[in-house]
Each structure stands twice: as C-alpha cells, then as structure tokens.
Amino acid sequence: VVNISESSTSHTSIFNWVQTEGAKLSKEADRIHFAP
C-alpha cells in the first residue's frame, strides 16, 4: 500500500526500484529460457 501523502521523490524511488528489479527478473528469465 502506497501512502498518498508520500513525496514524489519516494514515489520515484519505488518506481525505479520496481523497474530495476523487473529488468533483473526478465534478464534472469531470458537466461534460463535460452539455456541449453
């Protein structure tokens, strides 16, 4: 749950974290998928 009173800076940090983690998971999934 995200508090609406959170600052935009916190929102940006959370968004960036999600994007970073998502990219890591996608990369790992691709690595596993294409492994022989």
What would your notes on this structure say?
This protein is an all-alpha fold. 72% of the residues lie in helices and 0% in strands. It contains 1 helix and no strands. The longest helix is centred in the middle third of the chain and has 26 residues.
Keywords:
single chain; 36 residues; mainly alpha; 1 helix
Strands, helices and their partners?
Layout: H1 8-33
Short description:
This protein is an all-alpha fold and 36 residues long. Helix content is 72%, strand content 0%.
What would you call the shape? rod-shaped
Cα-based radius of gyration, to the nearest Å = 15 Å
Report the end-to-end length measured between terminal Cα atoms: 40 Å
Helical amount among residues, as a percent range?
Answer: over 70%
- Please state the structural category: mainly alpha
Which parts are unreliable, with pLDDT below 50 for 5 consecutive residues or more?
none
Q: Beta-strand level of the residues, as a percent range?
A: under 5%
Order of helices and strands: H
Number of helices: 1
**Main sheet?**
none
Mean pLDDT, nearest integer? 81
Count all strands and give the number.
0
